Amino acid sequence: MTYSNIPNTVKSVVIVGGGSAGWMAAAALSKVLGTQNCDITLIESDQIGTVSVGEATIPQIQLFNRILEVDEKEFLEFTQATFKLGIEFVDWRKKDHSYMHPFGAYGTNIEALPFHHYWLKMQQEGGGQDLSKYSLAAVAAYQNKFMHPQPQQNSPLARINYAYHFDATLYAKFLSNYSIKKGVKRIVGKVVDVGLKAENGFIKEVFLEDKQCISGDLFIDCSGFKGLLIEQALKTGFDDWSHFLPCNRAVAVPCDPTQDLKPYTQSIAQDVGWRWRIPLQHRVGNGYVYASDFISDAEAKEVLLKGLESEPIADINILRWTTGMRKKSWNKNCIAIGLSAGFVEPLESTGLHLIQSAIAKLMTLFPTKQFHQCDIDMFNQQTEKEYQRIRDFIVLHYKVTERDDSPFWDYCRNMSIPSTLQQKIEMYQETGRIFRQDDELFNETSWLAVMQGQGIQPKSYHPLVDRLPVSEIERRLRNIESVIQNSADIMPGHHEYIKKHCML
To answer: Which of 84, 205, 314, 433 has its CA 20 to 30 A from that of 499?
Structure first.
């Protein structure tokens, strides 16, 4: 018996909203579920603009593209993409200080212990280089170099971890073309009303401005901040995290590039919030994330324009949000994905990953028409943990700072923080230990990069480090640094590599 003939199977999925979230969902469903088994309909309005400024990603996006069996060259060409080896944070710890949050590990484990404990000991001994010297991603990024992982055993070149910068509008279009070819039905229209079933409050249908009525078994809300289905129709509720993350607005505008093609995102702290710089093949994406309690929209636009390397090539786009998440991302027969589910500011480029992760959980817990509550509860529990762990990691950047030059930074330094974050900070301060919890998104390398970069100096290190004499630790660290630098020397320039290997 085929899927479509089995009783209670979901036969129709309706996605409300296009953009990255809607088309990522449509592409994944059409690939994994198949339109021959289930009708997949996406409704998007040409009257409603998408956010589409999220141009930076993290390495997990590679897995999503591989599942779709996307040709990387075709993807890079279509979206005008470049490669990303990490994020440079400028002026976050204090003015005139910067550090890299790289993709990929620092050094290598020594005697079964994490590398950084040996580095911490050498720091206390007055030796050892800057932490970034032990990361190929960081060294290559600062030298504007890139290459794909190479088939060389026991070499850092075999473990190059990367993500992309790309035009988010073009990525949505790329996935739209992909989805429609696989049989997804696209309807251009504006949803003006939602019909609920009287017996259980489930969504029965949506009504469009042109009087069309679209019914379905499962509804996916990709309507952005407004949450047309999850909030306006189902009244799900929202947990507000503005206390921890007071930035609630952004202004964004592209410009022409005047610098070498950097394989990393830059985040440059301001008196209020921070600016981003994201290099694409055809332009530079720029934005300024700020807190409206501390600066006006007009002043924010001035800060953004003043920081541009060349004249803007489009109008300034302004975004407003409340940081936080829905009390339930899956409510009845509706699943919110993307901005409709929640929003944690784009400091660590997690927006597209949260879309991807929600889709993965949906596939794992894909329902029947019975919509078992145990599946719904598991989806919501896992989503809540994921958002909270990402929230904690973002808060870390603001809380742990030496900046005292503005009311905004005074607020951030002095604000209370979640107990889960406080525990992580205290453990690193006391022992240098970092524990990854619940398979959280950001691993030990990420936490180390930011905690050390923001200025936390542990009081101690793992006691078993003392099994090796200082001279031997020093020798091994020098060797690792040498191997990293020699590997970076082999790598070609980022721009050169894209032109030679990544264009159709």
So the answer is: 314
For 455, what's the count of Cα atoms within 13 Å in the CB-facing half-sphere? Answer: 15
Quick one: tokens of 267?
Answer: 């985040």
Nearest-angstrom CA–CA distance, 179 and 185: 8
Q: Give the span between the Cα atoms of 172 and 50, in whole angstroms.
A: 10
DSSP line for 384-401:
HHHHHHHHHHHHHHHHS-
> What is the rounded distance in angstroms from the CA atom of residue 399 to the CA atom of residue 389?
15
Residue 354: pLDDT band (50, 70, 90) is very high
Contact 221, 229 (CB under 8 A): yes
> What DSSP state is assigned to residue 231?
I
Please provide residue 204's backbone torsions phi and psi, each rounded to the nearest 5 degrees: -100, -40
What is the CB neighbour count within 10 angstroms for residue 199? 6
pTM, 2 dp: 0.96
What's the mean pLDDT in 148-157? Answer: 91
Least confident of 166-170, 340-344, 453-457: 166-170
Distance CA 374, CA 158 (A): 42
Question: Domains of the chain: which residue ranges?
Answer: 3-81+166-238+324-389
Phi, psi angle pair for 254, to nearest 5°: -90, 160
d(C-alpha 114, C-alpha 479), whole Å? 16
DSSP letter assigned to residue 315: P
Q: At what angle do helices 373-399 and 419-431 cross, to 10 degrees?
A: 50
Answer for the pair 320, 248: CB distance below 8 angstroms, yes or no.
Answer: yes
Residue 146 · residue 491 · CB < 8 Å: yes
Q: Looking at the domain that runs over 3-81+166-238+324-389, which CATH code has it been given?
A: 3.50.50.60
At 204, the amino acid letter reads K
d(CA 46, CA 41): 16
Residue given tokens 């973002």 in the structure block: 394
**Phi-psi region at 466: left, alpha or beta (left = phi > 0; alpha = psi -120 to 50):** alpha
pLDDT, mean over the chain = 95
374-398, pLDDT tens digit by residue?
Answer: 999 999 999 999 999 999 999 999 9
Would you tell me how many other CB atoms lie within 10 Å of the CB of residue 40? 26
Q: Decide if pLDDT at 129 tops 90.
A: no
Which residues are marked as active site? 84
Give the residue among 16, 376, 377, 52 at the shortest CA–CA distance from 232.
Answer: 16
For 89, the token pair is: 């944070």
Instruction: Write down the pLDDT at residue 439.
Output: 83
pLDDT of residue 27: 98
Q: Are 309 and 321 in contact (CB under 8 A)?
A: no
CB 58 within 8 A of CB 350: yes
